[in-house]
Amino acid sequence: MSTAQTIIRRSLRILNVIPMGASVPGEMGNEALAELNSMISLWAQQSATIPAIVPEDFALVANQGGPSNPYTIGTGGDFNTARPPQQNSVTGARLLLGSTSPVVTVPLAIYTDAAYDAIAIPELTSNQPTGVYYNPTYAGGLGRIQLYPVPSVATNSLRLYFNKQLAQWTGLTQDIDLPDGYEDAIVYNLCLRLAPMNGRTPLPETTQQAINGFAIVCDANSSKLRDLSADPSFLQHDWRYGYNIETGNM
Q1: What is the pLDDT of residue 102?
Q2: What's the pLDDT at 226?
Q3: Cis peptide before 51 (omega within 30 of 0)
Q4: How many CB atoms are closer than 10 A to CB 141?
Q5: In the chain, helix, strand, coil percent, each to 5?
Q6: DSSP track, 149-205
Q7: What whole-number distance in Å separates Cα of residue 48 and Cα of residue 219?
Q8: Is the separation of the CB atoms in 198 and 17 below 8 Å?
Q9: pLDDT value at position 157?
């Protein structure tokens, strides 16, 4: 657990703005908190700084989810969770069939802008949707989730998988869990943001620590397990991989 106050104090101490053991003055702490949250918000736009993919489940309402009546997503929205900052922040989706025991989950397609725009009747209804479209609008801090076809029943739920960005601090004393290595990366990169406003020039080793910490975090998030894929052109002569409509061969 890390508080904003601890991170800010470390950064200001590294910059030699405050002496060792001193507390951060009130107004200085508030300005530094704004810079810290601004940096975390910027990091949320970069896929390499996202530490985890997290599923969340949401109840569905009959006849909601079309363009004229989408679900809002964000703090205080229909789906009350952190607003996904980018369209590709929604990495997967499943429909949870609530009338079965145990619950059966059905994979849903994730529509791009072009794919959703190509749907001739986006308000078409059905018991079960087959895909999800996320439009990262930001008015009121809310995005829009649309389903196709629009579900006509309320017995099922929607499970969305999100790139889980770091949370922002709501106050100096709030504790937030950080993945391993993140606190150092945040502290030293915050130094670079706080230095000009405090009349300091970061030491070369401080700048290098910031670069190294950010690179390590990005590298760790890019080193996830992935399924091995194969180019179909290498497999088209094997009957197990089906009929090739381009060559007419199995």
Answers
A1: 87
A2: 73
A3: no
A4: 14
A5: 35, 20, 45
A6: SEES-SS-EEEEEEEEPPPPPSSTT-EE---TTHHHHHHHHHHHHHHHHTT----HH
A7: 7
A8: yes
A9: 96
Distances (CA, A) of 93 to 6, 169, 203: 37, 28, 46
* Whole-number Å distance between alpha carbons of 225 and 209: 27
pLDDT value of position 1: 77
Q: What is the rounded CA–CA span in Å between residue 147 and residue 209? A: 45
User: What local confidence, expressed as pLDDT, does residue 249 receive?
Assistant: 57
The third-level CATH classification (topology) of the domain covering 2-48+166-222 is Hypothetical protein yqbg (1.10.3230)
Question: Is-above-0.70 flag for pTM?
Answer: yes
Q: Are strands 52-59 and 157-164 parallel, antiparallel or unpaired?
A: antiparallel
Residue type, position 116, single letter: Y
- Of the candidates 4, 140, 126, the one whose C-alpha atom is nearest the C-alpha of residue 65 is 126
DSSP 117-137: HT-S-TT-EESS--EEEEE--
Q: What local confidence, expressed as pLDDT, does residue 234 receive?
A: 58
Low-confidence ranges of the chain (pLDDT < 50): none
Distance separating alpha carbons of residues 108 and 130, to the nearest angstrom: 5
Write down the domain spans for the chain. 2-48+166-222, 53-163
C-beta separation of 143 from 73 below 8 A? yes
Q: For residues 239 and 242, what is the distance between their CA atoms, to the nearest angstrom?
A: 6
What pLDDT is recorded for position 58? 97
Interatomic CA distance for residues 12 and 172, integer angstroms: 14
- Under 8 Å between Cβ of 247 and 236: yes
Half-sphere exposure at residue 141, Cβ-oriented, CA atoms within 13 angstroms: 9
